[in-house]
Amino acid sequence: MKRIVVIVSIISCWIMACAGPDKTAPAADSHLADTANYTTIQWLDSLVDFGTITQGEKIQLKFRLKNTGNKPLFITNVRAGCGCTVPSYTKEAVAPGAEGEVTAAFDTNRSAAGDTRKTVVVHTNTRNGSEHSLIFTGHVKEVKVN
């Protein structure tokens, strides 16, 4: 009985630790809540076509952005639409007039062969929409096994 209590306690602590807020990340919500300091954004690349690649390849796609406002631009969250894509982004503030980027690592081993269209959603402190959808498309060629 004592062993069960210990195991349940360990699992509970583990679950709570995983579900808690990320203490190393800046308070992203504070940038979204401060609408007086919103800026504007221009996506230089919001749709990327990677062409044709072979099943098994991994590629890195880049989406560039420009802060067109007069306040610092913050990317507060980026999420991929599926498990085959891992996003990354400029973590520091993007100064007015400066550029930042969002990247997407696409693993064709975790995606079906054929025509593909994937989405990455970006949250920013911008007046011209705080949620932006970035899209990449292309064709994943199936590897034929003899």
Short characterization:
With 146 residues, the chain is α+β, with helices and mostly antiparallel strands.
Q: Describe it for me?
A:
This protein is α+β, with helices and mostly antiparallel strands and 146 residues long. The chain is built from 2 helices and 8 strands. The longest helix is centred in the N-terminal third of the chain and has 18 residues, at 2-19. The chain is elongated and about 60 Å long.
Helix-strand layout with pairing:
Blueprint: H1 2-19, H2 28-33, E1 41-43, E2 47-54, E3 58-67, E4 75-80, E5 85-89, E6 99-107, E7 114-124, E8 131-141
Parallel strand pairs: 2-8
Antiparallel strand pairs: 1-3, 3-6, 4-7, 5-6, 7-8
SS class: alpha+beta
The total count of helices amounts to 2
Give the biggest beta sheet: 4 strands, antiparallel
Using only CA atoms, what is the Rg?
A: 20 Å
Spatially, the strands of the biggest sheet line up as: 1-3-6-5
Mean pLDDT across every amino acid position: 84
Q: Which of globular, elongated, flat, extended, rod-shaped describes the shape?
A: elongated
Low-confidence stretches: 12-28
- Helix percentage range: 10-25%
Return the string of H and E elements. HHEEEEEEEE
Distance between the termini: 56 Å
Number of strands: 8
